[in-house]
């Protein structure tokens, strides 16, 4: 099997699974207990927090463990607007966010908040001038994703952070696709809140964290016990936290090598498709894109059918994003970058990963070329 859907999820690394194993049945103590036996769990949780803090150039107490990217996004948005509602009720985000942000914003609109959904340009970039123009005296939060999960475009995060800071507005970024893939320094980028998810970087599913800068107020997301400094209650998922910590540590070690290899493999695949298949449109920016993302819209074909043909050759890819598969609407991201529906429906996303080989890139390029041509011939005969 050739797995090219790492933006949907990644396989858990063997070392990560091994690191978690002792904390299920052997060292099972509740991390909040005071006896000696609980010390191991507590220590394991704090070690993971330390690793993640270091990976972001943050402080330990700024990392809060959650049950995944969606929870982190929900908390970042609902928690901060609740805490700052006296200051204002206006939020700025973009049209290309993940649904964990977009649907939370829709919910907040129902609660009386106002949301500006910034358009993006043809490459998927937020226009800084439009961001500045959208800022109002009652704007309390700007939420812009670090990198887009469908088209891979990396947003101008440092500039956005600087604009937010200059206006005294909090800046949240959904970094689920970027964290552990590319280096992130929360101070350099002026980030106040950052969401990440374990299963997107070879860690366990159902784990994540939210970075909250010291001094930023947020309402508690889960009320209950005093875990996570009283801001996110519930007995710690010790194996999961150990796992996301181990995945972060591993990712930091392998990052530069992975970026170097994936970027070249990505560019090889992009070049192969562009040079061999006419009517193939690259989605997302050519350069400011995630090292592992390849996304094309092909004229005159159905992406879903192409996926099935590739699946028959044991190649796993994605039509748009896993979240919108099965829905009849073209992806909101492709619509936002101006792809016409006919072209948007012919979209294929391939996201490379740790185990991707050059041989797989070659086989995939051939399979895509062969099947796009086949589908076009069939369409012309009808
Ligand atoms: C996958 C993803 C999420 C959701 O993360 P989960 O851990 O699956 O809840 C949020 N944002 C982006 C950009 C994602 O790619």
TrEMBL record:
Record keywords: Iron, Iron-sulfur, Metal-binding, Pyridoxal phosphate, Transferase
Residue runs in coiled coils: none
Catalyzed reactions per annotation: (sulfur carrier)-H + L-cysteine = (sulfur carrier)-SH + L-alanine
Catalytic class of the enzyme: transferase
Catalytic activity, EC: 2.8.1.7
Residue ranges occupied by any Aminotransferase class V domain in the UniProt entry: 2-361
Name of this protein: cysteine desulfurase
Family from the record: Belongs to the class-V pyridoxal-phosphate-dependent aminotransferase family. NifS/IscS subfamily.
Source species of the chain: Eubacterium plexicaudatum ASF492
Superkingdom assignment: Bacteria
Cofactor: pyridoxal 5'-phosphate
UniProt-recorded Gene Ontology molecular function terms: cysteine desulfurase activity; iron-sulfur cluster binding; metal ion binding
């Amino acid at each position: 099997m050739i797995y090219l859907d790492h933006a949907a999820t990644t396989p858990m690394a063997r070392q990560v699974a091994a690191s978690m194993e002792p904390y299920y049945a052997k060292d099972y103590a509740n991390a909040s207990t005071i006896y000696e036996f609980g010390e191991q769990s507590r220590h394991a949780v704090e070690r993971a927090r330390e690793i993640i803090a270091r990976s972001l150039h943050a402080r330990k107490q700024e990392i809060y463990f959650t049950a995944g990217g969606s929870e982190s996004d929900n908390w970042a948005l609902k928690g901060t607007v609740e805490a700052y509602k006296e200051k204002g009720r206006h939020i700025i985000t973009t049209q290309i966010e993940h649904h964990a942000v977009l649907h939370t914003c829709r919910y907040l609109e129902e609660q009386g908040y106002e949301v500006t959904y910034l358009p993006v340009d043809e490459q998927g970039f937020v226009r800084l001038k439009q961001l500045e123009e959208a800022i109002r005296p009652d704007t309390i939060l700007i939420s812009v994703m670090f990198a887009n999960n469908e088209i891979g475009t990396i947003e101008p995060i440092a500039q956005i952070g600087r604009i937010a800071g200059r206006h005294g507005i909090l800046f949240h970024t959904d970094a689920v696709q970027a964290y552990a893939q590319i280096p992130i320094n929360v101070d350099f980028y002026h980030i106040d809140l950052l969401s990440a998810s374990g299963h997107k970087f070879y860690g366990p599913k159902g784990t994540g964290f939210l970075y909250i800068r010291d001094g930023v107020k947020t309402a508690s997301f889960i009320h209950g016990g005093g875990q996570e400094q009283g801001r996110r209650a519930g007995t710690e998922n010790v194996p999961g936290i150990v796992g996301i910590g181990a995945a972060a540590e591993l990712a930091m070690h392998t990052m530069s090598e992975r970026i170097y290899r994936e970027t070249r493999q990505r560019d090889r695949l992009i070049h192969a498709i562009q040079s061999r298949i006419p009517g193939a449109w690259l989605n997302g920016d050519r350069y400011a894109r995630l090292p592992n993302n390849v996304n094309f819209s092909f004229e005159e074909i159905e992406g879903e059918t192409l996926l099935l043909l590739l699946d028959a050759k044991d190649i796993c890819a994605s039509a748009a994003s896993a979240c919108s598969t099965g829905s009849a609407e073209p992806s909101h991201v492709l619509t936002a970058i101006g792809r016409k529906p006919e072209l948007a429906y012919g979209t294929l996303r391939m996201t490379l990963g740790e185990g991707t080989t050059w041989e797989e890139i070659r086989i995939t390029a051939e399979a895509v070329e062969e099947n796009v041509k086949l589908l076009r011939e069939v369409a012309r005969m009808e």
